[in-house]
């Protein structure tokens, strides 16, 4: 598998020149574009890596999955009083739909939805940022994961769009805590600095019926894990969810830091990272790498015949 | 399995009183609401039914899958020059997004997208309606399937909304044939009268890597079949695609006639039918039946552990 | 005044090179751009012209005023059950607002509103096209005015966008006659071929409390005439109504043929024509000419002090 | 005229029971609905009043005119780099259009536009609130006008929607000062407490070619005054601008405190006040009173024949 991963990275490396690193905050704009890594955590305990798989990057919107899981963990189905789980069909930071639908975000993976989830968590935890950081450390079995304070502060300085969303939801009664305080937490989550290895490990429980093999905790029930995967499958890649389902066919969540986390239920959790993005804000080389990986190794959840290797791994579960 | 299907139908039967039969054309408004059926076609060749599984109903939007498959069959990836495969986030018959996106429909399962697909097929076949009817007869192994002329004519009389969409796309250069002629074909497809057994059989190839076990033809390549499943998963249930992924977790396509076709890749094709609809236009009892079926038998494509029975069936493939 | 008109035309003539003749139908795209004319009908009976004031042009959307006046004439306030008189804030041919507002057009000067007005007139007149032509001939005191059959046919061939609007309104129950028949009438009105002199004369009744000095008929009541002027002032220039109020400050109605009709209540009716349009579809040189005319002669209805000359003319009324 | 004003108030008084006092902040919700006043400032120096014409009320959005005039006063045409003067066709506090049009408000009388104007003034004045208060005191010749601190604070506590707009504009680079500071100024302007007499006096310069007869200052040039009137005519009454032009036919600006200021160019400035509002947020009785006043005394700027009395007053100017 090591060889396959290396071969895939070599194949997609030319795409690094075609994308553009996220420009909306200076701290991210300075990231070197020529980086590319992948990590595959198999549920039989093996970890395979290639490229810059151990270089920390800003996980950005991948953190929306962790926030959602935290909220489901303490509030269960109750969170769906505040937001939905339908694809939005609009840009991740659009206010149009949010106004038309009276402050109720479509799903937890657009910014408005993630802000509501953070608002829910803010009501629960005395120190929401630390609570999240510790949660992620346990999931990834890495006690050295930190949030990059420079990135978080830079995002706060450029908070206007997210602040507009939060205030719009507050005007509809769907935001309960101080806007600035929640934004601070939100940006700390986004600024978590993790490597492909960290993210792949931290997503293992979603491929494993909600059980985290590293921390040995049942993070979610099997049904809840399946539901989070379903939401990722329909809403996890900004306005490319359909494209990702069509080309890769696996639940996933991307971030503008260039990371994409993917779940192969029952078999693998995967993270690919490359900071150069396409027009939709997804890692250009990362998308292509996952498409190849899906074709050659993992298969798609929508295909009839799992790959032989995968079946073998599955038996070993 | 027979017992399980019967048990599920008994469980959801109280919901028949809560939905409403589609009212937009008289021919559909007259359908008796107290009907409920299910058929499960296993890829090992077994067919299991319960309830009114052999009563023909109007397949309506389920026909959009057949049209799409026909178009992919003769034009392949080329069709995506004319439309996309992203979830729309809007009502199935909305013109708002269509205008903003300059006449390019989001996906083939909203009305605008299905009309473009029909326009593509119209350019290909001398008699598009007959070509479709014969195609469906082969897939379902039932030479007696017909389109209900009364329903088709009634839909044509109430064509205003679909005509508006077609003309709007024509104004953007994305509609090539005579609007009325394409609408006639479209309504003939919608008015196809099929039973749960017919539909379950006709969808078998999508669970079976594109190979139809009845007609013994490779309808699509394995990858194309997987892609059609992916589009169903993100856009197949009107504005409830997210809800269906969350609750059922399988690719599916619904129609306002009350039918829902579902694919369990590698294992089953399923059709449930009950004409009483929820507010989103999907069969109320049908949705609940599929949720139970997913929990107890088929599993979800997003869950880590397939059900034991399913695994057995899989082995037999 | 003759000299003033000539001076204004000379001043704006350089703008003829900057606009673009309407391209949406071939018949209009062939019009020579270097044409410019103006006619001012004074209520004391004098007519002043300059430039190509006697060259017929396609009045296009200016006809929307005549249709509205006809409808008010036979149905009075009842027409407002079917449409409004608020500015739309959207492009003249947008379907977005029309869908959101359930098929009720904002005002009679966007295409959807004009189509509803034509639908109302179609229900009233056996031959709506002839009825309109004869009405305009009386108002302009010119029995030779005709509708250009080539233009009307060309518009019909490119009817897709207007057909989409009509069908969308029909889907909401706000369109009662056959769509094609109403479109035929609508395009015949748009294709009326009139000169600046014709239009200026035909608009005189709106400056004259509803009384047409040429045909000696009370076309509208004084209050109705004032109301039509009010609608022109808030909605008469596509999405430049605010700009026109700001720069010219007079009720007016433009057409993509390059004509703009203007009313100075109690004093003048005016028509300027030049086929080269700005990005909003209004005559570029025509707009500037009217701005100068407002500053130097007519004043604006929003200014405190009418011009001396105007006051004199007023006394002579 | 005194008798006419009294007669009109008596006529519309039954409408006081049909509207609803603004509820969005507690301080306004407590205002007694059974209040009704009118003041007419004639340019010949006479002031006519009836009803509660000397009771102070919260001017709210009427303040948007004063802010605009201040901004034009120091920055002239330059302000139009930041916003437009087209009718919006949308609710006064909608963010939809603002996002689509990339943070550039349609006009200065919707909230977003007024916030940009306040942002411009904030950059100019060290203490924007005091500067505005003093400006209004001069225009109204009343040194005791104050801003109601309770109302202003209440509005700030309920600032969410306006904060959302300001941050959205900031995200597009069209908001330069601290959002909270500008909101504080904005709410102080809205909370100005003035009577019908105050407002009628303060609007006199707009009827008088920009010259304030009380403070003897040329506030605006004649052309600027005409332009402000034009903007009021197309955008001054929330989403009833068309209705107001149709029924009253005069430039005006309303506020949710129940006041409506109106300009009869060259003749009068008027303020009517009654706190019970219609569904569009305009004073129900106030609108009807102005419609009667327009019919019986002032005429409309869109009518051909000014009323005799008005002509007399005009001569006296």
UniProtKB/TrEMBL annotation, chains A, B, C, D:
<protein>
    <recommendedName>
        <fullName>Glutaminase</fullName>
        <ecNumber>3.5.1.2</ecNumber>
    </recommendedName>
</protein>
<feature type="binding site">
    <location>
        <position position="256"/>
    </location>
    <ligand>
        <name>substrate</name>
    </ligand>
</feature>
<feature type="binding site">
    <location>
        <position position="186"/>
    </location>
    <ligand>
        <name>substrate</name>
    </ligand>
</feature>
<comment type="similarity">
    <text>Belongs to the glutaminase family.</text>
</comment>
<keyword id="KW-0007">Acetylation</keyword>
<feature type="binding site">
    <location>
        <position position="238"/>
    </location>
    <ligand>
        <name>substrate</name>
    </ligand>
</feature>
<dbReference type="InterPro" id="IPR015868">
    <property type="entry name" value="Glutaminase"/>
</dbReference>
<feature type="binding site">
    <location>
        <position position="162"/>
    </location>
    <ligand>
        <name>substrate</name>
    </ligand>
</feature>
<feature type="binding site">
    <location>
        <position position="155"/>
    </location>
    <ligand>
        <name>substrate</name>
    </ligand>
</feature>
<dbReference type="Pfam" id="PF04960">
    <property type="entry name" value="Glutaminase"/>
</dbReference>
<feature type="binding site">
    <location>
        <position position="111"/>
    </location>
    <ligand>
        <name>substrate</name>
    </ligand>
</feature>
<comment type="subunit">
    <text>Homotetramer.</text>
</comment>
<feature type="binding site">
    <location>
        <position position="61"/>
    </location>
    <ligand>
        <name>substrate</name>
    </ligand>
</feature>
<dbReference type="GO" id="GO:0004359">
    <property type="term" value="F:glutaminase activity"/>
</dbReference>
<keyword id="KW-0378">Hydrolase</keyword>
